[in-house]
Amino acid sequence: MIFYPTSKIQGEIDVTADKSIYHRAVILGSLIESTSEIYNIPNGQDCLSTDECMKKLGTKIIREGNKCFVKGNNFYECSTLNAGNSGTTMRLLSGILSSLPFISSITGDESLKKRPMERIIQPLTQLGAKITSSNGKAPLTFYPSKLHATSYRQIKASAQVKSCFLLASLNAEGTSSYIEPIPTRDHLEKLLLLSGAKLNKIGDKIEITGNAKLNSFKITIPADISSASFFIASALLSKNGNVTIKNVGINEHRIGFLNAVKKMNGFIEIQDIRSNEAGEPIGNIIAKTSNLKAIEIEAKDVPSMIDEIPILAVLATQAEGKTKITGAGELRKKESDRIFSMCSELKKMGANIKEFEDGFEIDGKTRLKGAELESHGDHRVAMSLIIASTIADSPCKIKEIDCINISYPNFIETLEKLTK
Length: 420
What we know:
Layout: E1 2-3, E2 8-13, H1 19-29, E3 35-39, H2 45-57, E4 60-64, E5 67-71, E6 81-82, H3 87-97, E7 104-107, H4 118-126, E8 130-134, E9 137-143, E10 151-153, H5 159-169, E11 175-179, H6 187-194, E12 199-202, E13 205-209, E14 218-220, H7 225-237, E15 240-249, H8 256-263, E16 267-275, E17 281-288, E18 292-293, E19 296-297, H9 309-316, E20 319-325, H10 338-348, E21 352-356, E22 359-364, E23 372-374, H11 379-389, E24 396-399, H12 411-419
Parallel strand pairs: 2-15, 3-14, 6-7, 10-11, 18-20, 19-20, 23-24
Antiparallel strand pairs: 1-24, 3-5, 4-5, 7-9, 8-9, 11-13, 12-13, 15-17, 16-17, 20-22, 21-22
């Protein structure tokens, strides 16, 4: 598609619901016999992949408009599950498959089959799981095994690894512990407590006892902070920017982007802060046109903003000084190599970028020019480039933008609402 520059980004919007919470709610709900209710559900392809995998295993999932009902059942054997492009689906669901009394397998599309799965194989094996893989990548095959309690220390900060471990530990004998020196998003922990799991957090250690009876839950999913970040950025960069995004999840482990923007002198205001049924904090975020300045992002900052670094790169092109991001090597193992993808495409637009193995340095402020760009089949890269195109000096042609359907099918429609 061709995207044109615009001088105005204004209005009040809703953005898609948090898919990170949705994945966890559906998978946890599949372990509970009574019906759980999930409201304000996302409709991206990744979430539908989780639905299809759980249905294939025997879970009853009924979507009605903007709500979803999930009823667990005894899982039954099925053909190989397909997680599509969703790394979250594959990694979290592996925690369930590791304890099933029959052989099960899960694979994904060509992109997902290139992503590392050794990070979940190791802790699951420590719990007693029997798993084979393709050199540490999908497809993964799980063999019947009896899981036992263990203690696992996080090697690299990963909420997906943590969630996989906790889900597997629900079916392990005894009390297991997961130690994470660097905190990551805790959506599953909140849901587990809501459903009555025996979970306790002491410092950097999470303890969970297996075979506890779980109760059904009813939650409303907040708007996704990662999706909101694109429109926050568009308001900050616009000559006439003033955007309000309603009911956004502002979990303390997810707001690294907001903290970074504030350090960049970006206008961010959060109003009407409250909590939902699962204890997730929610608020309305206001962003306005700002004169940005460069900052430095280090490894300790990355886990709370890993998904927002591509759009932060766009902001950095318009910040006075040198913005430097390091400790973000994990970006090379996403749907695309996001460090390479963002550096190569922003360079085409005239940005002054130096690429590192674990990040990049951007020297701003730079006037971006229109160019022919590649999304690299990565939804977050595509959406970041679309926002960059709104401040370019001429139109941009972006290839393969269908990938945005993975997380935000209505993204362009939402952006158009702000430009009218």
